[in-house]
TrEMBL record:
GO terms for cellular component: nucleus. InterPro entries: ARM-like, ARM-type_fold, HEAT_RRP12, HEAT_RRP12_N, RRP12. Residues 1061-1071, 1187-1196 have a biased composition (Acidic residues). PANTHER family: ARM REPEAT SUPERFAMILY PROTEIN. Residues 15-273 form the RRP12 N-terminal HEAT domain. It comes from the Eukaryota. Residues 1144-1153 have a biased composition (Low complexity). It comes from Trametes pubescens (White-rot fungus). Keywords: Nucleus. The keyword Transmembrane does not apply. The keyword tRNA processing does not apply. Gene3D superfamilies: Leucine-rich Repeat Variant. The lineage of its organism: Eukaryota, Fungi, Dikarya, Basidiomycota, Agaricomycotina. This is Ribosomal RNA-processing protein 12.
Length: 1260
């Protein structure tokens, strides 16, 4: 609690020198209070601040005259209220409750006086928010407290935005945290009554009254404020009051204010959604009336925003109605559908989108009884069932010109219908209602999809994808054949290759369909590909290759809890030896098809394991379709039993594939191996383990015996050793205790941990760490440490990270009576904090912290058994604690090398940060004083670490501990304030900024001794003030987005290396970059008819393919480029090569090339690093390059010529110059004009509007 109040007050203290009165007054008062604490030897705590501020407030009120206390920015009462609002959240709740009468008697009478002063009023409201949060149920009935809360409630309608926002936040926070064990706050009922009264008054045209600058506001403005307050508070109100609030909200649209109507509908939508999520919110009795009122007051069609809100609330009402009473709700579906369907005719995209979403919600209201009735009358011509009427109306809309612009929304409605007609009427073997009712509509959509003029192919693909997911590919492809083979193409059938990417999603079709339908199809396609390649038709071969790949990409979709994994399906089993052999061959020989096959094998196992477990958490990770329509647990268990019989053969295949693929692809194979090894029999796991160990021994011996030159020529034994180790890591979690112990002993040898192959070492340490963490092995920590210490000489740098992980795991297993082992690990861990690899450094820090936690847990350190302890030293057992451990670590400060001293300082920094609550103040002071001395070291590596510790100490250690040392800190730091090497100047500046924020300008400045040193601090302060002024003067957006601080991902790294420098911010733009999407002109320009002069247009059929939403203004029209040129007397176009606009362009080009000329020409020069001028050498090569540049870039030379002076250079190239005859005299010219154009008209037309240079080939 003390740290919290200190963190809050530390942001106020530095403002004593502020030029703003409302900042300076609280800071000055705070300084005075703290000075009083020091005089009276009072510990500054939240309680002490609270009591002192109440006393100060009492004195200020008593000294004020009859006119009341002054409320100016520099006066005492606003400053006291500001500090109270900052301190009270940190005060213990019992203290607030015991001082409640005093607090109320002093502050509650101030509401009337504060109403005209917004800043102190906000402080008062914040104060009451903290007080109310700390009270028990019995305290809430204290006289005056309820009245004060109602006063704050009135301020939620205040015309001042900040006051209104603060009051609304306090009311919401209070109601959201009721005193235990109450579910609702006692004040919630009063708030609900006030809201109902305010809504009633607004609906009747009255004007709510409230305290504030103005006596009142207009009714509509007050209503807007009320609705903005009501939205977040609604879930905290009593459930019995929601129905009456709903009735009052429905009256607001009648006022004719569009914004009020939209807000009311939006809040109603939130309320209805709340009734679905919270069972205590009961609106069932009002649903029928609510639906009737909403249907009876539709907005005008021209109001897009209101129509969208009305559609949303109507859809949510039907959902809530269905949740409350499904049988009554389904009777209203047809009526509501008609009301919403008319909105699809709107010209506003927002309205159509909201209507489509509401219609999608309406599909969720279908009941099994209604669906069964629709299926029974599916063959009748005249639809009577509401579902069949809806399907018929939707189908007709695809051909209607009225709904042409709403085709995407209609398709989304079709997707919703398919989704909600997944009903199977009992058994999973029965067909879905969507299959029986929606296939004709699906066929129509597929026919639209293949038309070249249909623009909504993505929406159509989404609808077809929904059909594939619900009905399954077997049903969809029966109605919509792929038509991909040569026979289909010869018969003129339209191919539907766009269906293939849709197969990859989870669906209900059995795996047997893929085996019986797609496998033979891919075989025929592969034969066609082979034939095309043999005959040299590479493009055709590529087409067949892509189709085969797309088909196999759909295999995983068949494997999600498939029902026929074991049973027969058609002519063959789904996972027979023949199909398994085919999959194995694909894994070995088809790298492009390997990923889908691997995904299928993994999904096959994982989905059945999740379904068989019955674990809700595992099932929740499965796709929605699998969760909604799953196989039974018994079927899933049978599938797992069947897969277990094939685990041995599949593991052998996967092991071979794992060794044959590259490192980039091994992770994917490893995931499949982990999935299959998890369901394998323990005996099979043991057999696989022994095979891998035997192979590992062989490869390890072979790699050891092969000399380096021959190893490069033959097969890589080292690589096979690494592959075997990776496989052992994969099966490690499933090993028995005996096998795990044997593997531990095998790896804990010099052959593995001192191998010349870095990969073998890394995996050896990683495996050992996993074995120790698994707990399957019984090990002697002392023996392990001794073995590891003997193997440190051959340690590779790449294996240090994993070695640290292993040491960390072993440290956690050290018995409390064997803590004398820790000192032997400390030097290696400390030096590890200086490793170049970030991961190795982090692992070393983890090891240091793990040893600290082990020592903090207690135990005994037997000093006589500590390695290196001399006999003369007192062999007294020491009690293990964090301070004893810090003493061990601090021994490194006496190291012989600067590197060791620097590493020790870094390790101490981490321990101080991690155990700051456990280390005593005396130890913290001793550590700080010791390391502060090192800041004055002559070695930069030591100074760098010491500066990092000082920076961390200022951020972490208590201010009372550091304040006495300010006179030493400031001069020591100022010594490095002008040193640029190692970024010391920037580091010191950042540290001073933290000091200034923590202790204030006066205290820090007083410690600077020399005038030059004081100038450094003055400069920092000036730059800081400049940054504040720049931020204050920057244009403020309505909703400011705070700049995100760059974090390193670790709290210690953020404190030690992160910079909170405000001066860095002053050099950059403070305004955050807004990733605003560019506005597109004509985004909703509406749909138009596509004109085709070659055929008449039928507006009665297929209108969806006759409509375009493309911007006609951007379409290129015939003759558009030719219209830019004039015609001669003979009617021929005249293309003038010259243009008056080219002259200034050439001049600009010369001016723009001046810098380049100064660097490249013979007359130019350059400047060296020291600023010396170096003239370019006049070489033949440079002159030749200059001549060539003059020949090519003629426009520059011509533009730069002086008037009346003839140029000896070549003339500008003419358009079509490259087509001109080389030996002939040229074409016949009339009046000096070429009769033909030798370039595209579009290029010539562009030339008329810009003066760009043309190259020698007439190209730009």
């Amino acid at each position: 609690m003390a740290d919290n109040v200190e963190a809050v007050l530390s942001k106020i203290r530095p403002h004593t020198s502020s030029a703003l009165a409302h900042q300076k007054a609280p800071a000055t008062l705070l300084r005075a209070i703290e000075a009083t604490f020091r005089e009276q030897n009072t510990e500054p705590s939240a309680t002490a601040y609270f009591a002192t501020l109440l006393t100060t407030l009492d004195g200020a009120l008593q000294s004020s005259g009859a006119s009341g206390p002054a409320m100016g920015e520099a006066d005492v009462v606003p400053a006291v209220l500001y500090l109270l609002a900052a301190v009270v959240p940190c005060v213990p709740h019992p203290v607030i409750r015991s001082n409640l009468p005093t607090t109320l008697s002093l502050t509650s009478p101030l509401f009337s006086a504060l109403s005209a002063f917004a800043p102190p009023l906000r402080s008062q409201i914040t104060l009451y928010g903290a007080v109310l949060h700390a009270l028990d149920r019995s305290d809430l009935d204290v006289q005056g407290l309820r009245q004060a809360f109602m006063t704050i409630l009135q301020f939620t309608l205040d015309p001042r935005p900040k006051v209104r926002k603060k009051a609304a936040e306090v009311v919401k926070d209070v109601l959201s945290a009721p005193p235990l064990p109450m579910a609702k706050h006692p004040y919630a009922e009063k708030v609900a009554e006030w809201v109902k009264a305010a809504l009633t008054e607004i609906s009747s045209g009255g004007i709510p009254k409230f305290k504030g600058k103005k006596a009142d506001t207009e009714g509509s403005e007050a209503a807007v404020h009320l609705l903005a307050f009501l939205r977040p508070v609604l879930p905290t109100l009593p459930t019995e009051s929601l129905s009456s609030i709903t009735s009052s909200l429905l009256l607001l649209p009648r006022l004719g204010n569009p914004y009020l109507s939209q807000s009311a509908y939006s809040i109603l939508s939130d309320l209805l959604t709340l009734s679905l999520d919270d069972p205590t919110v009961d609106l069932a009795s009002h649903m029928s009336e609510l639906l009737k009122v909403i249907l009876s007051s539709p907005p005008i069609k021209s109001d897009a925003a209101l129509n969208a809100a009305w559609a949303t609330v109507l859809g949510n009402t039907m959902l809530a109605y269905h949740h409350a009473n499904a049988d009554e709700c389904v009777l209203q579906v047809n009526k509501v559908w008609k009301a919403l369907w008319n909105l699809l005719e709107s010209s506003e995209a927002a309205t159509r989108k909201a209507a489509g979403q509401a219609l999608a919600n309406l599909g969720k209201c279908f009941t099994p009884t209604t669906i069964k009735a629709a299926v029974k009358e599916k063959d009748s011509e005249e639809p009577k069932n509401p579902i069949r009427k809806i399907i018929f109306q939707t189908s007709a809309a695809l051909d209607s010109l009225t709904y042409a612009r709403a085709i995407p929304d209609v398709l989304s409605v079709v997707s919703s219908l398919i989704e909600n007609l997944r009903f199977r009427n009992g058994s999973r073997k029965n067909s879905t209602a969507a299959e029986q009712l929606m296939l004709p509509l699906l066929t129509k959509i597929a026919d639209l999809r293949v038309q070249k003029t249909f623009e909504h192919k993505e929406a159509a693909d989404a609808t077809l994808g929904t059909a594939v997911r619900i009905m399954g590919p077997e049903v969809v492809l029966r109605a919509l054949p792929l038509n991909l083979e040569t026979v289909d193409r010869q018969a003129g059938r339209e191919p539907r290759a766009y269906l293939l990417p849709l197969l990859a999603q989870p669906h209900s079709s059995p795996l047997g369909h893929f085996v019986n339908y797609f496998v033979p199809l891919t075989e025929r396609m592969f034969d066609l590909q082979t034939t095309a390649e043999a005959e040299g038709r590479q493009s055709e071969a590529k087409v067949w290759s892509v189709l085969v790949e797309q088909i196999w990409m759909g295999l995983p979709g068949y494997c999600w809890g498939t029902v026929d994994l074991k049973q027969a399906s058609g002519r063959s089993f789904s996972l027979t030896a023949q199909f398994s052999q085919l999959l194995s061959q694909l894994l070995y020989g088809q790298p492009t098809l390997r990923p889908p096959v691997l995904r299928a094998l993994k999904i096959m196992v994982d989905s059945n394991v999740a379904l068989a477990s019955g674990d809700a958490a595992k099932i929740a990770k499965l796709p929605q379709h699998v969760r909604v329509d799953p196989i039974s647990e018994t079927e899933a268990e049978a599938n797992i039993a069947f897969l277990r019989t094939q685990a041995e053969s599949w593991l052998a295949v996967l092991f071979n594939v794992f060794g044959s693929v590259g490192r980039d692809n091994q992770a994917m194979v490893g995931d499949v191996v982990s999935a299959w090894i998890a369901i394998a029999d323990p005996k099979e796991v043991t057999q696989a383990y022994h095979k891998l160990v035997t192979l590992f021994d062989q490869n390890l011996s072979r790699a050891k015996n092969i000399s380096a030159p021959s190893a490069n020529k033959g097969p890589s034994a080292d690589s096979m050793t690494v592959v075997t180790q990776d496989l052992l890591l994969l099966i490690l979690p499933y090993l028995s205790s005996e096998d795990a112990t044997a593997l531990l002993n095998l790896y804990l040898t010099t052959e593995v941990l001192e191998s010349r192959d870095n990969g073998v070492q890394k995996r050896g340490y990683k495996t050992l760490a996993r074995l120790v963490e698994s707990g399957k092995t019984q090990l002697d920590a002392a023996a392990v440490f001794k073995t590891l210490e003997s193997l440190v000489d051959g340690l590779a740098a790449a294996a240090k990270k994993d070695r640290f992980h292993l040491l960390t795991a072993v440290v956690r297993l050290i018995p409390s009576e064997s803590l004398h082992l820790i000192p032997s690990v400390i030097p290696e861990a400390v030096l590890g904090t200086k490793e170049p690899s970030e991961k190795a450094r982090n692992a070393a820090f983890d090891l240091i912290v793990a040893m600290g936690k082990k020592m903090s847990a207690g135990g005994v350190v037997k000093r006589d058994q500590v390695e290196g302890m001399e006999e003369d030293d007192a062999p007294v057992d020491a009690t293990a604690n964090i301070e004893e451990y810090m003493t061990m670590i601090a021994g490194g400060l006496a190291g012989a090398s600067p590197h060791m001293i620097s590493a020790t300082v870094t390790a101490i920094s981490r321990l101080v940060f991690e155990f700051r609550e456990s280390i005593s103040s005396a130890m913290q002071t001793e550590i700080f004083v010791t390391i502060l001395v090192l800041v004055g070291s002559a070695n930069r590596e030591i100074v760098k670490s010491a500066l990092g510790f000082v920076k961390l100490a200022i951020h972490t250690l208590p201010a009372e501990l550091l304040r006495p040392h300010l006179k030493d800190i400031v001069p020591t730091l100022l010594r490095w304030s002008h040193d640029h090497k190692n970024h010391f100047k920037a580091k010191v500046r950042h540290i001073f900024e933290r000091l200034l924020r923590r202790f204030g300008w006066e205290d820090v400045y007083a410690c600077a001794q020399e005038e030059e040193a004081r100038g450094v601090l003055v400069n920092i302060k000036k730059r800081k003030d400049r940054a504040k002024r720049k931020r204050a003067n920057a244009p403020q957006e309505e909703d400011d987005v705070p700049k995100a601080k760059a974090v390193a991902g670790d709290a210690f790294e953020d404190v030690l290396y992160g910079s909170e420098s405000e001066l860095d911010d002053s050099d950059d733009d403070d305004a955050p970059a807004q990733n605003a999407a560019p506005k597109r002109k004509g985004k909703d320009a509406g749909a138009r008819l596509r004109i085709d002069d070659d055929e008449p247009m039928d507006l009665l059929s297929g209108a969806a393919s006759r409509v375009t939403t493309a911007n006609a203004g951007k379409r290129r029209k015939p003759g558009q480029d030719a219209a830019r040129f004039k015609d001669d007397d003979a009617g021929k176009m005249v293309i003038d090569d010259g243009s008056d606009e080219e002259a200034p362009a050439g001049a600009d080009a010369v001016a723009g090339d001046a810098y380049r000329e100064s660097l490249t020409s013979v007359d130019g020069f350059t400047r060296g690093p020291n600023g010396k001028v170096k003239f370019n050498k006049d070489t033949k090569k440079r002159r030749r390059e200059a001549d060539e540049a003059e020949d090519v870039e003629m426009a520059d030379a011509d533009a730069g010529q002086k008037a009346g002076k003839k140029s000896k250079k070549k003339a500008d190239p003419k358009f079509g110059h490259e087509f001109k005859a080389k030996k002939a005299g040229g074409d016949v010219k009339k009046n000096g004009v070429d009769p033909y154009a030798y370039m595209p008209l579009s290029q010539a037309a562009k030339k008329q509007n810009r003066g760009s240079r043309v190259g020698i080939a007439g190209k730009r």
